[in-house]
Write a structure and sequence with these properties.
- The chain is built from eight helices and eleven strands.
- With about 220 residues, the protein is of the alpha/beta class.
- It folds into two domains: about 120 residues, NAD(P)-binding Rossmann-like Domain (Rossmann fold, 3-Layer(aba) Sandwich), CATH 3.40.50; about 90 residues, 2-Layer Sandwich (Alpha-Beta Plaits), CATH 3.30.70.
- The two termini are about 40 Å apart.
- The chain binds adenosine-5'-triphosphate (2 copies) and calcium ion.
- One of its GO terms (biological process) is potassium ion transport.
- Pfam families: TrkA_N (PF02254).
């Protein structure tokens, strides 16, 4: 269980802090707006009304003891940067920051933070990929154009085997597992036959995955 500080409890910050709580962590939430803090207070370990650019306020809240901080004051460049500088001076190693503009990103990368997040762009790309490949439920990029994807088996390819599905790309795609209701099948053989509503998890190159896409939907 970790201890996290979430600074800025707008839509992004509040969603992140609630999910951290759900995952079993302790979360100190900070926002300058009392109304916002009151709305979420009973769902966090501690929620405080404070100006995150005020060093004493952050120290009083014991932010120094946190393992990681998420700074989610996207709209205010000044508050975001000042807060990040304070957190760095308090020696918090893991600082993740939501950025909303190019200059914001540039400054953050110069100061050096663990991760810069662009929710609108990242989500926009995810949505485009889902629109383009609706059968892909989830995917993860693992670098070098390699992906792990979870595919929902529809009527179109029920009854076909893994060997048929992957025929010309079997060297570029590895079937990792199939989930059928509550059962997980590992070490999938080429003869494994897919059924409707199976979740198939594959790892492979983007090009190979694109090749089999028309077969799936
Ligand atoms: P959203 O996640 O809703 O898209 P956003 O990235 O657009 O948020 P803002 O709405 O500007 O960013 O700020 C998020 C939250 O941060 C707001 O609830 C705001 O009250 C809070 N905030 C802004 N400045 C400060 C500050 N100096 N100290 C603490 N909280 C602040
Ligand atoms: P972002 O993705 O940047 O967070 P947002 O969800 O906060 O955007 P807005 O910035 O209000 O939403 O609007 C997004 C875009 O939609 C803007 O570029 C705006 O010009 C455009 N837009 C707003 N109203 C209309 C409209 N009636 N017709 C067409 N485009 C519109
Ligand atoms: Ca916003």
């Amino acid at each position: 269980m970790g201890q996290f500080a979430v600074i800025g409890l707008g839509r992004f910050g509040s969603a992140a802090s609630l999910e951290l709580m759900r995952l079993g962590h302790s979360v100190i939430g900070v926002d300058i707006n009392a109304k916002i803090v009151n709305q979420i207070a009973d769902q966090l370990t501690l929620a405080a009304v404070a100006d995150a650019t005020d060093e004493h306020a952050l120290k009083d809240l014991n932010i120094t003891a946190c393992d990681a901080a998420l700074v989610a004051m996207g709209e205010s460049l000044e508050a975001s940067i000042l807060c990040v500088l304070l957190l760095k001076s308090m020696d918090i190693k893991e600082i993740w920051v939501k950025a909303t503009s190019k200059p914001h990103h540039t400054i953050l990368s110069r100061i050096g933070v663990s991760r810069i997040i662009h929710p609108e762009e990242e989500m926009g790309m995810k949505v485009a990929q889902s629109l383009s490949y609706p059968m892909v439920n989830q995917y993860m990029s693992i670098g070098h154009s390699l992906y792990v994807v979870e595919i929902k088996i529809t009527e179109k390819c029920q009854g076909i085997s893994i060997a048929e599905l992957l025929k010309e790309v079997k060297d570029s795609i590895d079937p990792l597992l199939v989930r059928r209701k509550k059962t997980i099948f590992k070490r999938i053989e080429p003869s494994f036959t897919l059924e409707m509503d199976d979740s198939l998890v594959l790892a492979g190159s983007l090009n190979a995955l694109k090749t089999i896409a028309p077969r799936l939907a």
